User: What shape does this take?
Amino acid sequence: MQHMYERGLSRRDANYAAMTPIDLLARTADVYPDRLAIVHGLLRQTWGETYIRCRRLADSLVRLGVNRGDTVALLLPNIPAMIEAHFGIPMAGAVLNTLNTRLDVESIAFMLRHGEAKVLIIDTEYATIAKAVSEEFPELTIVTVADIDKGDLNLPAAVDYETLIAEGSPTFVPIPPEDEWNAIALNYTSGTTGEPKGVVYHHRGAYLNAVSNVLAWDMPRHSVYLWSLPLFHCNGWCFAWTLAERAGVNVCLRKFDVEAAFRLIIEEQVTHYCGAPIVQSALAYAPEELRTDLSHTISTMSGGAPPAQTLIAKLNSIGIQNTHVYGLTEVYGPASICASQESWKGEEAGRIAELNARQGVRYPLQSSVSVLDPHTMTPVPRDGKTMGEIMIRGNICMKGYLKSPEATDAVFQGGWFHSGDLAVVDPDGYIKIRDRSKDIIISGGENISSIEVEDALYRHDAVAMAAVIAVPDEKWGEVPCAFVEVRDGMYVSAEDLITHCRQYLAGFKIPKAIYFQRLPQTSTGKIKKQELRMLYGASSLEDAGGFAC
Amino acid sequence: MQHMYERGLSRRDANYAAMTPIDLLARTADVYPDRLAIVHGLLRQTWGETYIRCRRLADSLVRLGVNRGDTVALLLPNIPAMIEAHFGIPMAGAVLNTLNTRLDVESIAFMLRHGEAKVLIIDTEYATIAKAVSEEFPELTIVTVADIDKGDLNLPAAVDYETLIAEGSPTFVPIPPEDEWNAIALNYTSGTTGEPKGVVYHHRGAYLNAVSNVLAWDMPRHSVYLWSLPLFHCNGWCFAWTLAERAGVNVCLRKFDVEAAFRLIIEEQVTHYCGAPIVQSALAYAPEELRTDLSHTISTMSGGAPPAQTLIAKLNSIGIQNTHVYGLTEVYGPASICASQESWKGEEAGRIAELNARQGVRYPLQSSVSVLDPHTMTPVPRDGKTMGEIMIRGNICMKGYLKSPEATDAVFQGGWFHSGDLAVVDPDGYIKIRDRSKDIIISGGENISSIEVEDALYRHDAVAMAAVIAVPDEKWGEVPCAFVEVRDGMYVSAEDLITHCRQYLAGFKIPKAIYFQRLPQTSTGKIKKQELRMLYGASSLEDAGGFAC
Assistant: This one.
């Protein structure tokens, strides 16, 4: 016989609903229909209007033949259509597949094929790609968004986005997921080696991370959010859905540039934005005249890499409060946050920046973010020294990799998502990344964290970017080698940097060579270390300005 | 063959965890171990300490023989043990059954029997009840909490709560629910007729409402919350769990009194509290000298009944911002909120109060709160006139009534929870309660909302409380009859009140009789109309000061 707390007490329509971010928009459109939802150029669109447009989009997609579980791909900058797609596509029961706008045709074609996209919504700026894929995928429906006047796209079969919106029914009833475990998004990770992997998000995780963002950031209702973070990157860390919950304002930014960013921050009284260190650095070191009218405080979340101490100080000095978060595509963006503590206030500035640059503690609605010994699967001691791998588990974790059961099983081994990032845990329980597993340098049997060496380099004012890789060494096995990009208008010699590093690093951790050059970056602002490694292999490198210690 | 978005992508330990409020405490204890969690008299307990105590409690309950799914009952005021129980009992896999401290022995005995409680945790103040139930339930383990010195409880078999805590292991690993649909709490509703019904809450709903409270109230991290609302009432609207998420401060209040409340508000810099209109009224009209040192702004949520316009104005004048919420035990406390709109600011004060006194819109994470025609199950028009029944559906809705499959099926008919409350919907989509189904007055074929008549009475300064019931009438079928409690030190005649009511009500809605007397209330501050109806039937009533129009 069933337990008394189960008997006659099963789930039913009245007390169980699949969690989905669609509901967050539906409520806000009901409660705050006249509040501003999207700002883009002259466009000022309310939440009521946004909901209607999303319903129209969903209806049109269904009419185009999009079925439940079909993939709709997007190649769009941070424009209104991109935000609408985050709701309109799931409302059609379909799966949202945002593509990195900086990818080449081959990569895009791979993803369209692998993800079996039925529709591609593409900005007319990417005409070359649109033409190429329309030839390669004759069955693919192409929808073009004419956000700016780039009239050279002549695709007779393409459908105009605004026509799609106009023809869809404003009273379309959104198709709810049959199960909150249904896919809502497909995000390809740009792995440094091998083919990209398709990370599948579920409605449950998207809903919970949308809310977790609010809790993590203590984000007030009606916050004004600048889209400096690409929406194609982990669905903008789920902030499109968060903004709907908050009835906030999405301030669009088609292309990041400092002048536009500061103009919007001031004009729209932006309260929040996210960005990689490169965005933070651009804002922090922007010409002062861009922010003469900036008088309010702004909150930012930075991710991708820990911001340098000097950068944090610089941001603070112009009224930007930084919170550092850490995550990966597989966990919907941020999985941990360097939650600040009142007790830190007494520390000196440098120490505060150091404390704030850590990866921190688990995100509010994530079950666990731990540093485990990957062999024993037990937590490392909280000694700030013992390295282990960052592992994550909980409801804000992907379903797995599309069509890659082996890769999925491997990355979820032992009941945890294996991040591939190596870290230590400080005595206060805060996680501090040491390295990617593959970036660790093993020198004379000792582990050297490339990040630790980079941190030391970043403490020098003239260093704009730094990357440290392992290079083979006859005596030590491996030794660290640094690549440095110097800040515009400044100068530093390799000797100066070596001397500088000695203040912070043990002798065996000092780079054995320093090269000055522009550093290759991924579209999300990460330095492509793999490229540097290949470059190092090329004989021309030393000629290019390298300095061997 | 499975769809590509399902194949090899099923739930596993790494990406799926049963949602439970236990996790909210675990995270806060990890991240903010040294922050203040509970204030009670001289006690100042941190979140780290609280988590340890809850784990000790859970361990001891398991040692006492409490198994997964067993019921642990509580008869406690708003003291630390009550907050700890909200975590410690679920951590043992058991179900939390808070009992109303104002109930008589018979009711308590009914609930212990019906809920099959294995353990009763009881405050020594309720010695009479403890003795009676210990005789009636020899198998029941009684745990006594000696919060205040009331040394007359001599139960040799009883276990002391602090001994239980001391003997439990601080490293006990909380037992997670096997399924988030598992019961976390059992709350008896004090129906006005028939036996109490046992409302069963699930972990999923408790978790989501804990978060929904934060979103609804825009409640900042580290808020300081005064426990003026009984924790035995819908688990304090789930705020025990909310406070854990916020790493806030629980300011205990063993017994509500205005002096203690204001002292704590000032000393602890309380930022938030909840309460029925009776609590709000007590604070608003308290002697001014109690709040001479009050200089900060406080947010309050009021529920139970819409606060009168004059009460809202009075609260505002002393720095208390009121938000009106509506809900029932079956939906974990608040299900709707009168979310304020910027556009209301331009209205005159009376109109603002009127707008703010409505039941409003659905709570952030609730799927739907609608007013439906109970026959056709279609929404009523947004005309502010057409009455329907408030119906609720979503994830913050009980599993059902314990051991009452028929009552459960009935209340969930048609896929909605039927609240039994009659309401209209204003053109802006805000719900306004008109009456309980059973309180509606049908006079000459016209519906009269008892609440509308009460609202008119409340607009008179001298009216502290008012209740309107239907009484039989030969000509009209039913007519409204009012019971009024006059504010201390004030006077008003029935004739005056009738004249007053004519300003606001159509002739047929004017009470045909007004009685001045103390009004009987439930332990949660609701007026017992059923008692008034019985009283009206008694012949002695007219002698007691009634005035027939």
